[in-house]
Specification:
alpha+beta; Immunoglobulin-like; four-stranded mixed beta sheet; four-stranded antiparallel beta sheet
């Protein structure tokens, strides 16, 4: 019984230690992960922004930001984002196709959460 309790205590200490290290390590924190355009008319500007903060103690570098398809075009900062500073990823969706859409944008960086998936969604309707 004592052996089992000792093992459990050891595992708890190791788990808490690892959790504390992850909170201290790098991370990229977005204001929101999904942008909902709602209902928009065909041909409207399909532009939105995802704001993020560097919670690391070292510069954050976005190595690649890619959309799942060609109808979505992301633009991102190419220069390092310094600790505590913010950046913006601008996404443009081609609103020339009528219908609902739900697209993803994958952000790769040197943060602990190095692969973050952003999402845009909405419904494009004919102009009135």
């Amino acid at each position: 019984m004592k052996k089992t309790a000792s093992i459990l205590l050891f595992l708890c200490v190791v788990s808490f230690s690892l959790f504390a290290q992850n909170k201290k390590n790098d991370s990229i924190v977005f204001t929101y992960l999904t942008y909902d355009y709602g209902t928009i008319e065909v041909g409207s500007p399909g532009k939105c922004e995802f704001k993020f903060t560097n919670k690391k103690e070292t510069p954050l570098v976005l190595s690649k930001v890619r959309a799942a398809c060609g109808c979505t075009t992301p633009e991102w900062p190419k220069d390092p984002i310094f600790p505590g500073k913010t950046g913006i990823i601008t996404v443009k969706y081609n609103t020339n196709s009528i219908g609902q859409f739900n697209k993803t944008i994958t952000v790769n960086s040197n943060a602990v959460n190095s692969n973050v998936v952003l999402r845009i969604r909405g419904n494009v309707v004919k102009s009135k």
